[in-house]
Write a structure and sequence with these properties.
- With 907 residues, the chain is α/β, with parallel strands linked by helices.
- Among the domains are: 104 residues, no CATH class; 86 residues; 146 residues; 234 residues, Rossmann fold (3-Layer(aba) Sandwich), CATH 3.40.50.
- The chain is 56% helix and 8% strand.
- It starts with a helix and ends in a 5-residue tail after the last strand.
C-alpha cells in the first residue's frame, strides 16, 4: 500500500503546483484566477477517496512528515479545483495538513491552522459528522502542544460533555476527546486526573478489536505506563507498557517493519528503563539486545533510535567490579553521545543525560580528567551537567592532582554561576515575554532571540526526523544540509546572547550575565568584605557553599540535605507570619496575635551547616555579600544565629550583630556594584504612600476595597522625604499617590523611588469576577485612566536612574504562592528598568516597625552619606531590635523582613 501511495503522490507532484494552506484565506474568485486548471486535473469522488486513503497510509508508515505535508498541500489544491473551497473534501485535507504540522513540532502555526479548520468545520458540517469531532480534537491537541494546556483542558472538558451527549461515552471519537483531556491534565501536573482518564479509556476500549479502539487503548496504556514509571510505580508501569506493546504489535502487523514503529520503540524504551530501575539487569539486557540488533539493521548504528537502546545497554553493562564490562559500557555510551551531539542541539535533554552518565562512568573508573572534558562540553553547549556528578569529578581531579586547586575552584565558581542563570530562567522568561511585547531595541533583540531559539528547535527536529528514517530512505546530501543549518542557527543564538551581555547589561545582570572568575570577584571586594555563595537547591539534593574574600577562597559541602534545609526554612517562616496591621492583600479586619516563638535552635543549625564551615575566612569581616539559591532565597540571612542558644534571659547572637548584609541579584552584578557610573540624578526622592483604595472602580473594585488603608505610611513617607531635605511635595499621598501620577513623572530625575503601600503577588484575587492577578503589582490610587495596579510588565518598560527603589510593602522579595516569581517579579522589573538597588521585604511587614526602620535608615544615610548602605541598614535594624520601648520588636518578624538587594552606593 505504501508503494502505491508513494507512486500516486509522486504523480501529483509532477503536475500539481504546490500551494500553501494560507491560500485558504484567498477569496475563491481570486484563487480560481491564479491558474486555470486543466480538465484532466480534476478528481472524481472515488479518485479523491483513493488518494486520501493512500495519503493517510503514508502518514501512518513514514516519519518524514515534511514530505507528507508537501504532498498533502498538493492534494489540497486538487481538492479545491475538483470540489470547491467550501467542500468536505477540502476540509479533510486541511485536517491532514494541520496534523502533519503538529508532528513537525510547529505548534504555534498548527494552532492557527487548527482554529481555521475547526471554524470552517463548525460552519460547513452537521453535528453528527465525524470530521467535525476530529477537528475539535485536533484543536485541543494543538492547544496542549503550543503550551496552552489550561486552554486545552477547558476546551476538552466542554467537547467531551457534548460528545458524550451526542455520540455516547463509548464512541471512539468521544474516547479520543478523553485522551486529549488526559494529556492536557498531564501537562498541567494533574497526575491523578490524567491517570484516571487514561484508565477509563482502557476500560471503555476493553477487548474491542476495532483498530481505532485498539489504537486508543494502546496510546492510553503507553502514556499511563510512562506516568506510572515517572512517579515510581514501576510494577504498575510494567503491566501497562506490556499491554500497550501488545496492542501496538497488532495495529502495525501489516506494515513492513511492525516491530520498529515509533510507538512500539518508545514504549519498549520506557519498559527497558523500568526493568533497569527495578534492578532486573539480566532481564533488561535480554529485552534490549534483540531490539538493538533490529534497529541497527534497519536504521543504522548512527541512528538516534539506535542510541536510545544503546544507552540502556551501556547502563546495564556498567559494573565497576568488572573492568572489561565497564570499559565496554563507556565505549557504547561514548558512541551514544557522539550520535546525539551530531544530530541534536547541545542543550538537548537526552544528550545532556548521556553525557552525565558518561562523565560519571569515567570519574568512577578513575578518569576524572576525561570526565571533566565531557562535562565541559555540556557547559559549552549552554546546558547544565548533573551537579553531584560534576562536583565529584572536580574534587577527584583536584585530589589526584589532575587539575590544580585554582583551576578546580574557578570551575566550581563558574558552575555555580551557570546554575544561577538556569535558576533565573523561568522568571527571566516571564520578564522577556513582557519586554518583547514592547518597543525599542531591547524588545527587538528579545524577539530576535526568541525567533532564533525557535529556529534551532525546528532545525533540530528536522535533522532528528531525517536520521530516524530507515537507511534505504535517507538522503546523505540533505543530512549535511540539515546539520549545517542547525549549526548556523545555534551560532546565531550565541551571537544574540553575546549582544545582550555587552549591549544590554541590565538584562544580563538580572539573568546571570557572563561569569566572573575568582580573581574578578576578589578585585571587587574590600578588605572587610566577603562573598558567601549558598547553593541549596540545584545539586541533586546535596547543597554546597563557597566563601571568597579579597585574598582567599574555599568551597565545601553543606552537611544538611536540601530537604532538611527546606523544612528548617519553613519552620522559621512560620514563626514570622505577621497578620496584624500588615501590608498585603489580606482583608481589613484585624486578626489575632502576630507571631509564634522564634525557633532559635533551627536558625543556629542553619548557620552551623551553611556558614560555619567558612567562618575562618570571615574573621575580621564586617560586610557580607550573599548569593542565595534554593530554600535560602526565602530567608533573610541576618536572622541566622551565630552562637549556640543560651538559657532563658540570654541574648540571641543574631548574625546581624556581626555583619551587615547585601543580597546580590546575581554574582555577575558585583561587576557594577558600587561603580560611579553616570552622573547622579538631580532630585533626591519621589515617594508614594497612603493610596486611596475605597473608591468607585470597575473590574478591580473587589480587591481594592478589601485592601486595608495605610494612614501611617503618610508619616513614613513624610519623614523619609524630610530626611533628604526634599520638599513635602515629593511625597505623593492619598489621591495623589496614583498610578497615573507615577507614570507621568520624569522618573530618571530621582535618586530614590519610595513606595509605602500594599504589594500583591501573582495569584492575588482581583476583580468582581474573581480572576487572579497574572503578575505582581503595587497597589496605588486608581484614576486618570489607570486601574491602580502598577504591574511588573509596566515597570519593566520604564527608564530609571535610581540608586534605590524601596518597596516598603509586603512580599516583595520572594512570593510564597505557586507561580510567584524570584524577587517577586516587581524587584526584578525595577532592576531591569535601571534601579541600582532595592530594599524589599520577605513577608508582610508590620506598619509601625516598618515606618521606624525606613525613617531611621534614611536619616542615617542623610547624616553619614559616606556610610555603606548595608551598614546603614544594619544600624537601623539594631535600633529596632534593641528598642526597650517596644520589646515585641526584638522578634525577627519586626526587624528582619527587609533585605538590601544590590548596591546603591556610588563610589
Amino acid at each position: 500500500m505504501l508503494q502505491r501511495a508513494l507512486s500516486v503522490l509522486m504523480l501529483i507532484a509532477t503536475h500539481a503546483m504546490s500551494i500553501g494552506l494560507a491560500a485558504a484565506q484567498v477569496p475563491p474568485a481570486a484563487a480560481e484566477q491564479a491558474e486555470s486548471p486543466a480538465v484532466d486535473e480534476r478528481l472524481t469522488s472515488e479518485e479523491f477517496q483513493d488518494l486520501l486513503i493512500d495519503l493517510k497510509a503514508l502518514m501512518a508508515g513514514s516519519a518524514d512528515h515534511g514530505e507528507i505535508e508537501k504532498y498533502a498541500r498538493q492534494t489540497w489544491r486538487l481538492a479545491v479545483q475538483s470540489f470547491g473551497r467550501d467542500s468536505r473534501e477540502v476540509l479533510e485535507v486541511e485536517y491532514l495538513i494541520t496534523d502533519s504540522v503538529i508532528r513537525q513540532a510547529r505548534y504555534d502555526e498548527a494552532l492557527e491552522l487548527a482554529r481555521t479548520v475547526t471554524s470552517r468545520a463548525n460552519r460547513l458540517l452537521k453535528t453528527d459528522d465525524e470530521l467535525l469531532w476530529q477537528s475539535l480534537n485536533l484543536l485541543i491537541q494543538a492547544h496542549t502542544q503550543s503550551g496552552d494546556a489550561s486552554g486545552a483542558q477547558s476546551l476538552a472538558t466542554n467537547v467531551l460533555a457534548e460528545a458524550e451527549r451526542r455520540l455516547g461515552e463509548g464512541h471512539y471519537l468521544t474516547i479520543a476527546t478523553r485522551l486529549q483531556l488526559a494529556r492536557a491534565a498531564r501537562s498541567l501536573g494533574q497526575v491523578d486526573v490524567a491517570e484516571a482518564h487514561f484508565a477509563r479509556i482502557a476500560e471503555l476500549t476493553g477487548r474491542q478489536t476495532d483498530p481505532r479502539m485498539t489504537q486508543l487503548r494502546a496510546t492510553a496504556l503507553g502514556e499511563l505506563g510512562y506516568m506510572q514509571a515517572a512517579h515510581g510505580r514501576l510494577e504498575e508501569a510494567l503491566a501497562s507498557l506490556d499491554a500497550a506493546i501488545g496492542d501496538y504489535k497488532t495495529i502495525y502487523s501489516v506494515l513492513k517493519h511492525p516491530d520498529l514503529q515509533p510507538d512500539i520503540l518508545e514504549a519498549s524504551a520506557t519498559k527497558a528503563k523500568v526493568l533497569w530501575a527495578l534492578d532486573r539487569f539480566e532481564e533488561t539486557g535480554a529485552f534490549v539486545k534483540p531490539i538493538l540488533a533490529r534497529v541497527e539493521e534497519v536504521y543504522g548504528r548512527d541512528s538516534s533510535r539506535w542510541a536510545v537502546f544503546a544507552r540502556i545497554e551501556a547502563l546495564t553493562l556498567y559494573d565497576e567490579d568488572r573492568p572489561e564490562d565497564a570499559d565496554r559500557a563507556i565505549d557504547i555510551m561514548s558512541e551514544v553521545v557522539a550520535i546525539w551531539a551530531d544530530q541534536r542541539s547541545a542543550s538537548d535533554s537526552d544528550l545532556v543525560e548521556a553525557r552525565d552518565m558518561l562523565g560519571f562512568m569515567l570519574a568512577r573508573t578513575d578518569r576524572p580528567g576525561d570526565a571533566l572534558d565531557v562535562f565541559g562540553r555540556t557547559l559549552e553547549g549552554d546546558a547544565l551537567p548533573r551537579g553531584d556528578y560534576y562536583l565529584y569529578a572536580l574534587a577527584l581531579a583536584a585530589k589526584e592532582g589532575v587539575w590544580d586547586a585554582t583551576r578546580a575552584g574557578n570551575s566550581v565558581l563558574d558552575y555555580l554561576q551557570t546554575i544561577q542563570a538556569f535558576g533565573a530562567a523561568r522568571a527571566q522568561a516571564q520578564l522577556n515575554e513582557r519586554l518583547a511585547a514592547g518597543s525599542g531595541e531591547g524588545a527587538a533583540i528579545l524577539r530576535d532571540l526568541s525567533d532564533n531559539e525557535a529556529g534551532v528547535k525546528e532545525a533540530q527536529l528536522r535533522l532528528s526526523t531525517m536520521m530516524g528514517l530507515p537507511l534505504e530512505e535517507r538522503d546523505a546530501a540533505e543530512e549535511q544540509t540539515l546539520r549545517a543549518d542547525l549549526r548556523a542557527r545555534q551560532d546565531a543564538v550565541g551571537e544574540i546572547r553575546q549582544r545582550i551581555d555587552t549591549e544590554f547589561p541590565s538584562l544580563a545582570a538580572i539573568s546571570g550575565g557572563a561569569s566572573l572568575t575568582k580573581e574578578d570577584i576578589q578585585s571587587h571586594l574590600g578588605e572587610d568584605e566577603a562573598l558567601v555563595i549558598l547553593e541549596t537547591g540545584a545539586l541533586d539534593g546535596q547543597p554546597m557553599g563557597m566563601v571568597i574574600t579579597r585574598d582567599d577562597a574555599m568551597w565545601y559541602s553543606i552537611s544538611d540535605t536540601a530537604s532538611q534545609m527546606q523544612k528548617a526554612v519553613e519552620a522559621i517562616r512560620a514563626s514570622v507570619n505577621l497578620t496584624l496591621g500588615v501590608r498585603s492583600a489580606a482583608p481589613k479586619q484585624k486578626r489575632d496575635a502576630p507571631t509564634a516563638a522564634f525557633p532559635v535552635n533551627v536558625a543556629h543549625g542553619l548557620y552551623e551547616a551553611m556558614i560555619a564551615p567558612g567562618a575562618d575566612l570571615l574573621a575580621g569581616k564586617r560586610h557580607l555579600y550573599f548569593d542565595l539559591r534554593g530554600a535560602m532565597t526565602a530567608l533573610p540571612p541576618q536572622l541566622l544565629v551565630v552562637s549556640p542558644p543560651g538559657g532563658e534571659g540570654t541574648a540571641t547572637d543574631w548574625l546581624v550583630r556581626h555583619y551587615s548584609v547585601t543580597v546580590l541579584p546575581s554574582i555577575s552584578s558585583l561587576r557594577t556594584a558600587g561603580l560611579a557610573g553616570a552622573a547622579s540624578p538631580p532630585r533626591p526622592i519621589l515617594a508614594f504612600a497612603d493610596p486611596v483604595f475605597d473608591v468607585e472602580q470597575t473590574a478591580p473594585a473587589t480587591l481594592r476595597s478589601a485592601l486595608a488603608p495605610l494612614p501611617e505610611t503618610a508619616d513614613e513617607a513624610g519623614f523619609v522625604v524630610a530626611a533628604f531635605g526634599a520638599p513635602s511635595s515629593a511625597a505623593r499621598l492619598g489621591a495623589d499617590a496614583s498610578e497615573a501620577a507615577f507614570k507621568a513623572a520624569k522618573l530618571d530625575d530621582y535618586r530614590v523611588l519610595y513606595f509605602a503601600t500594599h504589594g500583591l503577588v501573582a495569584g492575588d484575587i482581583a476583580g468582581t469576577d474573581g480572576a487572579p492577578l497574572s503578575e505582581p503589582a503595587l497597589a496605588l490610587t486608581a484614576g486618570g485612566g489607570e486601574d491602580g495596579f502598577l504591574t511588573a510588565s509596566e515597570i519593566s518598560q520604564m527608564r530609571l536612574e535610581a540608586d534605590w527603589v524601596v518597596l516598603s510593602a509586603c512580599n516583595t522579595a520572594v512570593g510564597e504562592r505557586p507561580g510567584a516569581e524570584p524577587l517577586s517579579g516587581l524587584a526584578q522589573a525595577f532592576m531591569y528598568a535601571g534601579a541600582r538597588a532595592l530594599m524589599v521585604s520577605h513577608w508582610p511587614v508590620e506598619s509601625k516597625s516598618a515606618v521606624r526602620l525606613m525613617t531611621d535608615l534614611f536619616a542615617i544615610r542623610s547624616r553619614s552619606p559616606e556610610m555603606r548602605a548595608a551598614d546603614a541598614h544594619r544600624e537601623a535594624v539594631l535600633a529596632i531590635l534593641d528598642d526597650r520601648g517596644h520589646p515585641e520588636w526584638s522578634h525577627p518578624a519586626y526587624w528582619a523582613p527587609f533585605i538590601l538587594v544590590g548596591v546603591p552606593d556610588r563610589r
